[in-house]
Design a protein that fits this description.
This protein has 349 residues and is mostly beta strands. 11% of the residues lie in helices and 43% in strands. Strands 1, 2, 3, 5, 7, 8 and 10 form a seven-stranded antiparallel sheet that branches. A four-stranded mixed sheet has the order 13-23-22-21, with helices on one face. The chain has a four-stranded antiparallel sheet with strand order 17-18-19-20, with no helix packed on it. The radius of gyration is 22 Å and the shape is globular.
């Protein structure tokens, strides 16, 4: 469970606006807006009106690497480009995870400007047949009348922002949007999507540079490595005492991943690229009933990432069973159980 301090550290909500359900569909008199989404590196689709810096484009937000970043603009700009992102799906709640700032290291983080205040709005979007190009998709969209304004902490870490959209209200609104589309347009519908719009409203100034940057964004459907480099890991193993997890890279260097002298580990699963491992941890000197804890290790960052898994998904029950699954496409998924005991699956990137 989150402590009060940890909760405040992760997220400070400035304001949340919700129009009562009975007034929800009165908003359908809004005009349609065009949203063009460009393809990314395979995680999600995004869109901006103008890419100001081709060397640091918004696709860097979704690559799982903290060293790359999107340069939004400069801190003294009067306004900044809004970012549109296609959500992976709605299941009663949505979490957006963001590393706001330069992620190379903590010193560099403070040298660059980063967002302080964000505003989120949601669109139900319709892609008509024939309105897709090789690298982009055109949507006609109406805004859902539920918005969030969020203040970020000035900290070198991923911050998990919970945006509580009502699943039933969204589905009702989506039905009304489809009816409105059929009335206003003659095109057939190819697909629909939920698109989140993120606007930067205030920033933390950089100590050295005025470039405004964001390193990473992901939703509750995946857990990226968030590395600053991609080493080749040859093997993962335990020490003879079985209380330390080690990795060996391509140069033969031994890397300590996790150690607990009060525990005994067992390796349950290892991903094909040796980037991820699931451990079972048991007390070294059990007193009565032995309790086991499942741990998710990332060898690229040499960390146990259970806390980030809990924050990023919003529903992982700490310490409960988890397993790895590799598909025919080579993607590695983590299977775990949520707070209600239901099995969930997310992509480990």
């Amino acid at each position: 469970m989150h402590t009060l301090v940890r909760t405040i550290k992760i997220l400070l909500i400035a304001a949340s606006f919700m129009i009562p359900v009975k007034g929800l569909f009165a908003q359908l008199h809004y005009d349609w807006i065009d949203i063009t989404m460009s393809e990314t590196t395979g995680y999600t689709s995004y869109g901006v009106h103008q890419i100001r810096c081709k060397e640091n484009p918004p696709e860097n937000l979704f690559d799982g690497c903290l060293q790359s970043f999107w340069k939004v603009g400069n801190e003294e700009d009067e306004e900044w480009e809004p970012l549109y992102m296609e959500l992976p799906g709605m299941n009663g709640w949505t979490i957006i995870n963001i590393f706001a700032g330069h992620g190379q290291d903590e010193k560099t983080y403070h040298q660059y400007a980063r967002p302080r205040k964000l505003h989120f709005s949601l669109y139900v979007a319709v892609n008509p047949q024939g309105h897709s190009a090789e690298n982009s998709v055109l949507y006609q969209a109406l805004r859902f009348p539920h918005e969030h304004t969020v203040f970020l902490a000035n900290q070198f870490e991923v911050q998990s922002l919970r945006l509580n959209f009502s699943e039933s209200d969204l589905e009702d609104f989506k039905s009304q949007v489809i009816k409105r589309f059929a009335k206003d347009f003659q095109d057939n519908i190819h697909k629909t999507a939920f698109i989140l719009k993120m606007e930067i409203q205030e920033v933390f100034p950089g100590q050295v540079y005025d470039d405004l940057v964001i390193s990473e964004i992901y939703f509750n459907d995946c857990l990226p490595s968030l590395h600053t480099h991609s080493p080749t890991i040859k093997s993962i193993y335990l020490n003879p005492e079985e209380n330390s997890l080690w990795a060996e890279n391509a140069d033969g260097k031994q890397l300590p991943v996790h150690k607990d002298t009060d525990a005994v580990f067992q390796i349950l699963d290892i991903s094909p690229d040796n980037q991820w491992a699931v451990l079972i941890s048991m007390p070294a000197l059990p007193d009565g009933r032995v309790e086991t804890t499942y741990l998710l290790a990332n060898t690229f960052t040499q960390k146990i990432v259970n806390t980030r898994l809990e924050d990023s998904t919003g529903n992982y029950m700490p310490g409960t069973p988890m397993f790895l699954e590799t598909g025919d496409n080579g993607k590695v998924h983590l299977l775990y159980f949520d707070n209600e005991g239901a099995e969930q699956k997310i992509w480990l990137r």
